[in-house]
Amino acid sequence: MTMDTNKEEKYIVTGGTPLKGEVLIGGAKNAVLKLMAAAVLAKGETLIHNVPDLTDVEIMLKVIKELGTKTKYDKFNKTVSIDATDITNVTAKYELVSKMRASFIILGALVSRCNEAIVALPGGCAIGERRVDFHIKGLEALGVNIKIENGYVHAKAPKLVGTDIYLDIPSVGATENIMLAAILAEGETKIQNAAREPEIIDLANFLNSMGADISGAGTSDIVINGVKQEDLHPIEYTTIPDRIEAGTFMTAIVATRGKAIIRNIFPAHLTFFNNKLLKMGASIKLIEPTAIEVSSKGRLNTVNFVTQPYPGFPTDLQSMAMVLLSTANGVGIITESLYENRFMQVPDMRRMGADIHQDRNHAIIKGVKKLTGAAVSASDLRAGASLVVAALMAEGTSEINNLYHIDRGYENFDKKIQALGGNIERIKIESTQESTGDLNEIRI
Ligand code: EPU
Questions:
Q1: Residue where a domain stops, chosen among 219, 238, 257
Q2: Spatial CA neighbour of 102 closest among 59, 46, 136
Q3: Is the bond into 158 cis (omega within 30 degrees of 0)?
Q4: How far is CA 194 from the centre of its chain?
Q5: Alpha carbons 257 and 16: distance in angstroms, whole number
Q6: Do 263 and 381 belong to one domain?
Q7: How many domains does the chain divide into?
Q8: Coil, strand or helix: which one is 113?
Q9: pTM beyond 0.85, yes or no
Q10: Which single residue of 392, 417, 420, 443 has CA 20 to 30 Å from 167?
Q11: Are residues 20 and 36 located together in one domain of the fold?
């Protein structure tokens, strides 16, 4: 924390306007960050399209650039170019990895491409401990020699040999790191109890178009047959749509009792979430293979749910559903099963009038008639976005502080909401109060 004059930004939101019109969803943050790391595997220039303009993308570009690659981001066309002909450095520094945990994925890519990597350990973040032990054990099983010294993972792999790896839990990051490390290993690698998220399939599709041999992505058993470095070539690839951004806008439309079309969405990626919204009384119509119309009227019903790895209820949309339950007709129970501390929005939701009882990883939400606007602060990316949605639903005006969390995962959030008729403004403030806006505190 700093105690000086600084410039910050905040949202001012006046609630009560039903969202109407159309919104276009961007590329998936949690896919694109991994594709960028995977681009390092092939010599030559890889182009990735549909890349959202986010702080996290900027950080990943820096990580990759520091390896000696040439990187460009054409923000107008949303295309990132990564020329990985030369890798001259195998270190990912703490200064960057600590700002964004997802950059730890560079470990698997560097081990494949250079047989060596020195990557800072990310540490925990606001929402949980977030260990990387499965990543490390998986790489060791492939023959990588790993030492942890001075906060860095020092990995050396003169020879990588395929093997069977069983994950205790279907970790997204561990599945991806192991996939990347196994691409050039000798023989076959099988990842059992692998994560099944759409972002894993996107990474496998990307790597296969590059010349890798991966099958089973999207199921619990992923098989990687090792290929040779000369089999890999640079590619041009378009990222899948962001299912969490789509779910956030679905929530905002339902919360405001609006009616709007969401484009560039893969509805099958949100099956569990859609079902819960339908049970709550929302209407979701498929109008094109990649477009839906969402609407709702009247008071919502309550539901209960447990967050689970895909295809279960996504933890990244838990806080959004909590906003809907906060004014639903009855009591809803949420169990958060992935993270130890992902109810960070609760104290601010209470300040807006919500009636929530929290006991460790359970939240009991008793629907109230309405929320009222208040000054609140984003504590992390998804909790922050859910407070914006709560403010759009609330009576009166709210301010949402610490926008740097939201900027990590939502491109032009305010502009997209404004285009739907929502009353939101992003304003600069001069403050002399304590600031928590230190970028070094950002970790997800
Ligand atoms: N875990 C371990 N050891 C490991 C790896 C994971 O104990 O080696 C635990 C974690 O501590 C966590 C759980 O397993 O409690 C799940 O972690 P996972 O590895 O599946 O998550 P991740 O790869 O770190 C990605 C997304 C998250 C999303 C989760 C779950 C990215 C960059 N991040 O994280 O997204 O919540 O999967 O779906 O892909 C977000 O976008 O807001 C976000 C947090």
A1: 238
A2: 59
A3: no
A4: 18
A5: 9
A6: yes
A7: 2
A8: helix
A9: yes
A10: 443
A11: no
Same domain, 222 and 262: no
User: What local confidence, expressed as pLDDT, does residue 433 receive?
Assistant: 54
> Tell me, what's the pLDDT at 124?
73
User: What tokens were used for 271?
Assistant: 């099956």
Strand partners, 431: 6
Domain that holds residue 279: 4-26+241-443
Of 203, 238, 273, which closes a domain? 238
Ligand 1: centre distance to CA 128 (Å) = 9
CA distances from 23 to 293, 384, 389, 415 (A): 10, 20, 15, 10
Residues contacting ligand 1 via CB (< 6 Å): 30, 33, 102, 128-135, 169, 171-174, 195, 315-316, 338-339, 381-382, 409, 444
Residue with CA closest to ligand 1 atom 36: 316
Give pLDDT, residue 292: 98
CB atoms within 10 A of CB 145: 12
Q: Tell me the HSE value of 385 on the side-chain side, using a 13 A CA sphere.
A: 27
- Kindly list the averaged pLDDT for each block of 10 residues, start to end, along the chain of length 444: 57 98 98 98 98 97 98 98 98 95 97 98 83 96 97 96 98 98 98 98 98 98 98 98 98 98 98 98 98 97 98 98 98 97 96 97 98 97 98 98 96 98 93 50 47
- The reported pLDDT for the residue numbered 442 is 46
CA–centroid distance, residue 101 to ligand 1 (Å): 9
Of the candidates 401, 351, 405, 347, the residue with the CA atom closest to the CA atom of residue 373: 351
Atom of ligand 1 nearest to the CA of 444: 44
Pick from 132, 165, 169, 380 the residue to mutate for probing ligand 1's pocket: most ligand atoms within 8 Å of its CB: 169
Handedness of CA 57, 60, 66, 72 (dihedral sign): negative
Mark whether 335 and 436 lie in a shared domain: yes
**CATH for 101:** 3.65.10.10
E strands, 369-422, are 375-377, 397-401
Closest CA to 160 of 113, 207, 192, 216: 113
Q: What is the DSSP code (8-state) at residue 268?
A: G
